Amino acid sequence: MAARAVTIQEVARRAGVSPQTVSNVLNNPERVRPATARKVHAAVDELGYRADAAARRLRTRRSDTIGLRLAPLPAGISGAILDVFLHEITMRAAQLGLRILLYTAADRDDEITRLRELVASGDIDGVILTDTQAGDPRPAWLRDRGVPCVSFGRPWGEEEAAEHPWVDVDGAAGTRAAAEYLIDTGATRIGFLGWPDSAGQGVSRCAGWRDAVLEGGLMNASDADELVTTCPDNVADAMRAATQLLTRHTDIDGLVCASDSLAFGALLAVGPKVRVIGFDNTPVARAVGLSSVDQRIDLVAQAVLDLLVKDGRVVAQAAGSRVITPELRVRSAVIQDPSVLGSDA
């Protein structure tokens, strides 16, 4: 037998406020003092309250809607990858009869606040998380409230212990494929341009390149360290970093980059004399003929929904993972005179 729906009056009594105050907290939070809002949210969480509007729509406690944070667009060309994911996940969800509800949040704590509102109002059945890392509080918060979730991105450092399903791209396999292609086509001195102080994804992408050049017999570990340089993920810094790397090592004839932003900057700096490969296969890479590793976001989106949806319904599933193998897209860059684009490209 279905559980009796909790009323707004019960929430008000538990929080020690009026029903109108509860309504304001849920619908017009700017009208309520933070201390009062915290009491109401605590009562909502404790009682499992769902707003009446949602209850009318969800007699089976379903909205057929999945929440997804619309993150701020990162700097650099590779930020477009989030747009691709959004398109793919929305299209594939629609094919299953589901909707994607986008919400914004400044950080993880702010996101939990927003999720609390969406869960309380019955607007979402599940959540797709992005930008995950070790110690992320969001999966546990959702699990404690019985809200299914899956993350695009592994919980770095906690992959085996993760209690929620996740999908990620094998970055090491991508950069390994890029370096091996350069080796197979005659490159003998291949550098790597990555991100400073990077963890997780950045380390993985560097590791794939390193494994390829060491196993290919091009250099020893000490030599490999000398051929790695890092900079922020933007074109201008990448131009400077690539120029400095080639000034120190004039024999470099190949360069694997952790992103298309870095690769495009390197391409502008070195021109056709060094073969450059990026990562993300962005529209810019395709437009200028830049070789790049395709994350296969279509397969990522499908895997995310496979772990979150069963028989057309959003359901909680046991922790598990899917790792997508990316694919190298080889092209011949058309920029013969990088000076025509200028240093601000």
From TrEMBL:
Molecular-function annotations in GO: DNA-binding transcription factor activity; transcription cis-regulatory region binding
SUPFAM superfamilies: lambda repressor-like DNA-binding domains (SSF47413), Periplasmic binding protein-like I (SSF53822)
Keyword DNA-binding (UniProt): yes
Gene3D superfamilies cross-referenced by the UniProt entry: 3.40.50.2300, lambda repressor-like DNA-binding domains
Keyword Kinase: no
Top-level lineage group: Bacteria
InterPro entries xrefs: HTH_LacI (IPR000843), Lambda_DNA-bd_dom_sf (IPR010982), Peripla_BP/Lac1_sug-bd_dom (IPR001761), Peripla_BP_I (IPR028082)
Keywords, comma-separated and alphabetical: DNA-binding, Transcription, Transcription regulation
One protein family per Pfam: LacI
Domain HTH lacI-type as annotated: residue spans: 6-60
PANTHER family attached to this UniProt entry: HTH-TYPE TRANSCRIPTIONAL REGULATOR GALS (PTHR30146:SF109), LACI-RELATED TRANSCRIPTIONAL REPRESSOR (PTHR30146)
Protein name according to UniProt: HTH lacI-type domain-containing protein
